[in-house]
Amino acid sequence: MRFHPYFHAFAHREEASRREGCGPEGLFRRHGRPGGRQRMFEQGDLRFVVLKLISEKPSHGYEIIKAIEDRLGGAYAPSPGVIYPTLTLLEEMGAIRVQETDGPRKLYAITPDGEALLRDKEPTVSAIFERMADINTRHGGGPAPQVIRAMENVKTALRLRTSRGPLSAEELARITAILDEAAKAVDAS
Q: Count of alpha carbons within 13 Å of 9, Cβ hemisphere only?
């Protein structure tokens, strides 16, 4: 099996980083100069995470973002600007393929080359997922990421609505009733 040249460049950097002992242990990995940005994954790790998740279940990009966020206990969610280029790269490498499309959404499935890549890099992939499980454990116990996201959505909707101008008495009563009813439903669950 032949691997995409872009993959080899990351594999070599990844191996060099391990030999040189780069990267502090912890939630995020520091890269570049002192004071540089922090990253959740070492360079090249995200593609293994995406590939492994697709091997477990064919998925859309959004589902992959949510699966990563859930596996990290809400500590991190990759942006679409990171996930979709990774999916494109994996597709160009022949590791995944589009199984079906539903409008602009593409359902990705793993290919035999992708399965071979996961087998070949199994120790690396296992180490990444162990690190993710550790992060989940350290950040677990708080509100589920879905609950936090829903609370933020409500706050944003309220801010957007109030920024359009004052509420009439009827609008104020309707919004208050909706929020009170939601609070009762949450309390009863």
A: 3
Residue 149's pLDDT band, with cuts at 50, 70 and 90, is confident
Cα atoms found within 13 Å of the Cα of residue 74, Cβ hemisphere only: 12
In angstroms, the CA 28 to CA 177 distance is: 42
Q: Give the relative orientation of helices 61-71 and 45-56 as an angle to the nearest 10 degrees.
A: 110
Average pLDDT, the chain: 80
Cα–Cα distance measured from residue 30 to residue 179, given in angstroms and rounded to the nearest whole number: 42
Give the residue-averaged pLDDT of 173-179.
93
Which of 94, 68, 71 shows the shortest CA–CA distance to 83?
Answer: 68
**HSE-up of 69 (CA within 13 Å, CB side)?**
19
Query: Token pair of 28, please?
Result: 């995020």
The torsion angles phi and psi of 96, rounded to 5 degrees, stand at -135, 165
Tokens 């829903």: give the residue: 150
Burial class, 109, CB count within 10 angstroms (exposed 0-12 / middle 13-18 / buried 19+): middle
Q: SS3 helix, strand, coil % of the chain, rounded to 5?
A: 65, 10, 30
Burial bucket for residue 170 (CB in 10 Å: 0-12, 13-18, 19+): exposed
SS (H, E, C) 142-176: CCCHHHHHHHHHHHHHHHHHHHCCCCCHHHHHHHH
